[in-house]
Specification:
Layout lengths: L5 E6 L1 H13 L3 E6 L14 H7 L4 E2 L7 H10 L3 E5 L7 H4 L4 E6 L7 E2 L2 H7 L4 E8 L9 E8 L6 H25 L14 E2 L15 H10 L7 E5 L2 E15 L6 E4 L4 E4 L4 E10 L2 E3 L4 H5 L4 E2 L2
Parallel strand pairs: 1-2, 1-4, 2-3, 4-5, 6-9
Antiparallel strand pairs: 5-7, 7-8, 10-11, 11-14, 12-13, 12-16, 13-14, 14-15
Length: about 300
């Protein structure tokens, strides 16, 4: 019997954990897992790849720079047939990519759309109704190599980033599981990537979640759900207090009373009238870090609208 194909896996987050499980289920010899050290300033709501690797007795390293000559030599000494990158946050240098017979990355969008950082969040901000996961060959440029597998998932109108990320995690698992036998055998088809059919997006910062109430209701709603917890949240400042809207509902065609953007309440609901007259129902929010129970939201606003511009 021939030896099992050997891989070095660069992985992080839930996608990294699920895809590592797929490799192990197919009998791949994972010689080393390369992950990231936890950032104490980050909300660690996802599965730790290092813990999973430890369960299987796989060595784990967390280098700050995986492109040093010393680290490249360490990977080369393992003589891997494949390198895989599953939600690893750093680009792999050409010296690493030259080591195996195949190097592949799992990206959280339907490439070539939403190349780069935070693809799930950007897809929601732009109101997409579909996204997915794409396995592609790694080259010198990010998210630019040939496609070997894609799996689409729907984005529903009120899905949050976490909802969609959970779907993308399953999509990544399905795409990898489906193509892996052919990939290991060297028979998987590689489709060229038309970079002109999509765009590259940069990372996002917490400040990018600031709500512009001069935008239409659909735009505000998309921002709220794109950065809803566990992400930092969509926010605005009112009378010196930081208000984070953590969940909203939007129904096209529903309008509120005429006037400038404002928060107002009816008997049971807290509502926001946006610049185009569209209305958002505010389901949950935080004021200076304190979560306000939904039942208390209308009472906190009172009888008079609160201007937002």
């Amino acid at each position: 019997m021939s030896a099992a194909p050997r891989a070095v896996v660069f992985a992080y987050h839930n996608v990294g954990a699920r895809c590592l499980r797929v490799l192990l289920a197919h009998g791949v010899d994972v010689a080393l897992v390369v992950s990231h050290a936890d950032d104490p300033a980050e909300n660690l709501w996802f599965e730790r790849v290092a813990d999973l690797a430890g369960d299987y007795g796989i060595p784990v390293v967390t280098p700050e720079d995986p492109g040093t000559p010393e680290f490249v030599a360490r990977v080369q000494a393992l003589r891997p047939d494949f390198l895989f990158s599953f939600y690893y946050r750093l680009m792999l240098c050409p010296a690493l990519l030259a080591i195996p017979r195949g190097a592949y990355n799992m990206h959280g969008s339907l490439l070539p759309k939403y190349r780069g950082r935070a693809p799930v969040n950007w897809a929601l901000i732009h109101g997409e109704r579909e996204t997915g996961a794409t396995l592609h060959r790694m080259v010198d440029k990010p998210d630019a190599g040939e496609i070997v597998a894609r799996q689409a998932v729907p984005i529903l109108p009120d899905d949050t980033a976490r909802d969609v990320f959970n779907k993308v995690t399953v999509a990544a698992e399905l795409a990898l599981d489906r193509v892996l036998p052919a990939l290991l055998a060297g028979t998987a088809a590689h489709a060229p990537l038309d970079l002109k059919a999509g765009s590259y997006f940069a990372g996002r910062k917490p400040e990018d979640g600031r709500i512009d109430w001069a935008q239409p209701a659909a735009v505000v709603h998309n921002l709220i759900r794109a950065v809803a917890p566990p992400y930092p949240g969509a926010f605005f400042d009112l009378d010196g207090r930081r208000i984070v809207i953590t969940r909203s509902l939007f129904r096209p065609g529903e309008t509120g009373p005429a006037g400038q953007p404002a928060l107002y309440a009816d008997d049971t609901r807290l509502l926001a009238r946006c610049a185009d007259g569209g209305v958002l129902r505010i389901l949950s929010l935080e004021v200076d870090g304190e979560a306000i129970p939904p039942s208390a939201l209308p009472a906190r606003v009172g009888q008079h609208p609160i201007p937002l511009l």
